[in-house]
Amino acid sequence: MIHPAAALAPDAITVGEALEAAALSAGNKPIDESDAAAIQAAETRATGLGHVVPGGVGAKAQSAAAHNIRTTRDELKTKLGDVLEDATEKLIDDKPVTREDAEGVINAEIRNKPDLATHPGGVSASMAASARLNQEE
């Protein structure tokens, strides 16, 4: 059986690139638990390791979300752009985004959000858009 990512074009958008796109579109948004969960899911899918990498973008996102809960002033909170800038370089491995990857990231984000919604332009939106573009190629 061929892995779904292997069937994509060589110039397909990777998970790291999708995370960087989220940093551009929603970079000023303070990271919350749902963002951290989405980033962790994306990193886990990119690396294929089945767990968050210590010191990786997922761990940094979780740390930022914990910091932000204790921080009252928005200007002092860690933002998506702070963690996801240069995500491609920070991931220990990367792969093209598939529909399955996007669905996993979306599920992780909404499970950690009281209103069960994703943030427009955020990590899930970027992963979903990347998966759609990759399928069109």
From TrEMBL:
Ranges where the SMP domain occurs: 13-70, 78-136
Keyword ATP-binding found: no
Family annotation (Pfam families): SMP
Highest taxon in the source lineage: Eukaryota
Keyword Lyase: no
Keywords, sorted A to Z: Repeat
Entry's family note: Belongs to the LEA type SMP family.
Protein name in UniProt: SMP domain-containing protein
Gene source species: Olea europaea subsp. europaea
Lineage: Eukaryota, Viridiplantae, Streptophyta, Embryophyta, Tracheophyta
